[in-house]
Amino acid sequence: MSGIHQEFLRRASRIPFFGLGLSVDVYSPDIFELYEELQNRKILMSYLEIFHAAPEALEVVRARLPGIPLAYHAEGLWFTQPEWETAYDSQERLQTAARDLQILQAHWVNQECATKEIAGFAFGTYLPPLFTGASAEVTAYHTWKAQQQLDQCDWGQQAESPLLLLEGPPLSYFSIGDISYAEFFTRVVAMAPCGLVLDLGHVWTVYRYSDAWRSQDLQSFFEAFLEQFPLERVIQIHIAGLDCHPTILNRLASGPHQNPPAWIDAHEAPIPEELLQLLARVVREPRLINLKGIALEVDNKQISLICREVKTIMEILEPLVPSRPQVFVPGTEVHGEEGPQEWDFEPSREIRHMLTRQYMDYVDLVTGKVRGRLDIPKAWDEGVGKELGYYATQYLPYEILSWGGDVRVMFPQTCQLLDQHGVRLNQFVEFWFAHARTSESEYDFFLLKIHLFVEFLDQVLPRAVSPVKLEAELLSQAYVIACQGSPA
Known about the structure:
Blueprint lengths: L2 H10 L6 E6 L6 H10 L6 E5 L3 H10 L5 E4 L10 H4 L2 H15 L3 E5 L2 E4 L2 E7 L5 H19 L11 E5 L13 H11 L3 E5 H10 L8 H11 L5 E6 L2 E3 L18 E3 L7 H10 L10 E5 L5 H15 L31 H18 L19 H16 L5 H4 L1 H9 L5 H7 L12 H16 L4 H20 L4
Parallel strand pairs: 1-2, 1-12, 2-3, 3-4, 4-7, 7-8, 8-9, 9-12
Antiparallel strand pairs: 5-6, 10-11
Helix pairs in contact: 3-5, 6-7, 13-16, 17-18
């Protein structure tokens, strides 16, 4: 057993097995309305994983749900990025995560192994990493350094810092790299003692957008995936809805197997039968020896649908999930050498420089600034086809103009002025990706949208700067108040 894996086991052994829980946003649906409805229906959740929110809101959650074990889903920790430590206020973002973990008394912190900021450009939803060996090395290094920094915090009665988990990201129409999704995570955990989150909906998108469906059915693909993926490191399993994007209808394609729908990750949507089948299969896997929890991701989902789906999954899991200890028993932990000497590595300057350049090319690809081949490894061209075109020409404009806040709803008077002067709203998308910008200390897509829309008006219609600033100020104030306040 490697020292790296032994260090992971030492940390993982301190986490109790929780069973079935929910991964939730504080506000949508209202977490306390949801909890009350579950109680009324006698549906007992053994834990909750809370998505990043204002500390005031997290304090209310911890105070009002004192008996519920909590975990934490962080935001803004872009370990995949080669300049993570220098370009993203990494120290401040890690301190924010530590503060939230202390408030929640969380057992682990989960961060998507993906990013919403690349080379000074911001996105609303996750972009997967480059699936290359160099990218895995840099991701592992940043993950382990972040865990070490969390270890330096005072955790009080918890005694030891929460375990850092990386979640396998979704693919939104494309994947770029010369190693497989599963191989990427195998390489990461060989270099860092982190845990993993296996998201079954994300795995389905790998099947769909790596074009594996052309040569395999879903069951055959999943069996091969499980053989390759480091299941021994999986702490948590996620399951959520899948759906077609509002602007992209399902498209048919030729192949030996039936073309799957053009689904992407959609937590508000129903969980398809395909994912329930994958869940029933994976929980039987004997290599899943460090699993601590299974969670339905339910942000933005109707409470009645959540309750129905929880019952369905309980029926699936009841005969399959083996009995596990519910509390940590002192003396059962795995002991290993303290300290990171065996795996205290740092990627070379050459690797970081290469990845920085490649991620800049990556931005050009996903924003549609360039098409076709670039001066990059040939393997990058695999999977970079018309699906990437869907992302650049339909998904991304919708993300900037409608997702996380519809611009016309946010700025009704200003948009009316733009229409009167013949200014296309799509020009805002062009403006958004016109040049790189410095990252803020905390990633917030909604506030960024407000700020950049004011800048956009100053450039394209200066006479409208006064009304747009007024609308922006009202929006910002209302948003901050809403985030700091508690749920109903």
